[in-house]
Amino acid sequence: MKKQKKIRNYSEDKMIKELKKKEKKAEKLLENAQGFDRILIKIDLKISKTIQFLQEVIEDLKLLFELVKDVVRQKYKEIPVGSVIIVTGALLYFLTPLDIAPDFIPVIGFTDDVSVILLVIKQIQTDLDNYKKWRKKNRKKRK
What we know:
Blueprint: H1 2-30, H2 33-72, H3 81-95, H4 108-123, H5 125-142
Helix pairs in contact: 2-3, 2-4, 3-4
């Protein structure tokens, strides 16, 4: 518990220090409407890109879940066992609240989960593409 508290305090202290730097910059920006408008455009763009990225990760996570479900239920069999093990491991990692970055730490707690999901997708991309094709072909049969 002491180690977690140290990590949290270090992170919070570092964030507060960085925030103070940005507050000084914010004061100057508020005095310059044109400069502030340029920053607002950049913020809006970053928000849009972040939302899109997170939506894609969520869709990827759902796809991995559906893949394992279809394999376990023996609906889909065209995938190497090793790929199923990797995906299942990633889903178990996602489920575990106390991992490299504990999930109770806002935002940071999910960055490692996202990293693991993206790593697994990269490792089994061909298998995942084949599964997507299979799902699309068998969608009507499944309903």
